[in-house]
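Memo to structure team: turn this sequence into structure tokens by end of day. - J.P.
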Amino acid sequence: MNARIEATPDNIGVAKIKVVGVGGGGSNAVSRMYRDRLQEVEYIAVNTDAQALVRSDVPVRLRIGDETARGLGVGGDPEKGQTCAEESRDEVREVLEGADMVFIAAGMGGGTGTGAAPTVAETAREMGALTVGVVTEPFAFEGRRRSKHAEEGIARLKDKVDTLITIPNDRLLVICGEHVTMEAGFRMADDILRQGVQSIAELVTVAGEINLDFADIKAVMSNAGPAWMAIGSGSGEDRAIQAAEEAIHSPLLDVSLDGARGVIFNVTGPSDLTINEVHQASEVISQVVDPEANIMFGMVTDMKMENEVKLTIIATGFPAEGGLVRATDNDTIMPDTADLDVPWFLRNHPATRRRMRGNVATTAMD
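Reply from structure team:
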């Protein structure tokens, strides 16, 4: 019997990924992604504010809820945001058509992102797409009302997505220090959303020496619930180990990896990156997750990185309802006297170590 070989259309075997920014924060993040875009990904901005959409760089822009918002936004009211999304469900469905994987990026606490993101996510999932939410929680200084809206929005969203990654903005203050401007703080929050979405999309779309395909991602992230995501980097000797340790001690994420049963990590480095270095990173990660965890990894060469290694981790499959271990819940670890004000899960992070060294040096000079 002769095998028949035929030409294959370019879109066969390629996962179609769409990234949707909902509301102000989400749309800002997607605009940043688009400037440094992946060619295989489609970027979409969804908002009730016509002026914000006009300023966006994203080519696909959808204004929702014209009957309710009239292009003027929803004044921070999540209920109006939800109503606007419901009004425009058909249009949302149209822009999501054909997607295999949909990312929903939003800043929680406002009106459109908080209210509309769950409806957009629900629509994507109904259409059969693997749906991943990546959202930020508001800074504490934004007030209790906004925090309450965020809590309610996240509770709604988690039931509408396969996987939900939540990033607390307050953790940014640990990295950027006390003297960051308001504008820079919000810009960093948008950029963290960008990193979260883009790093996962790269796992599927960027060809590597050891590839992760869409089926790998789907196996770990489908119906996975809460997820843990972080990025670390390292250079010089033991660079892969440094990158893995920096990621698992990320100050942006307030959960422990204990109990995670699904783990994907991707290592990106220069042409001299070795399989042994990937193995070393895997050893670091495997020591802090469930012993029976399904661990998958990819390896990509980036000629621009020279001696640096970047590592992205996505961990899912945490025990249901209350099984997620918050880092701040651990009160049995006693700190050294030099770092009483530093939470235990931040002490090993390079940014924290640098600040602590600076504080010690200042004290010694006094």
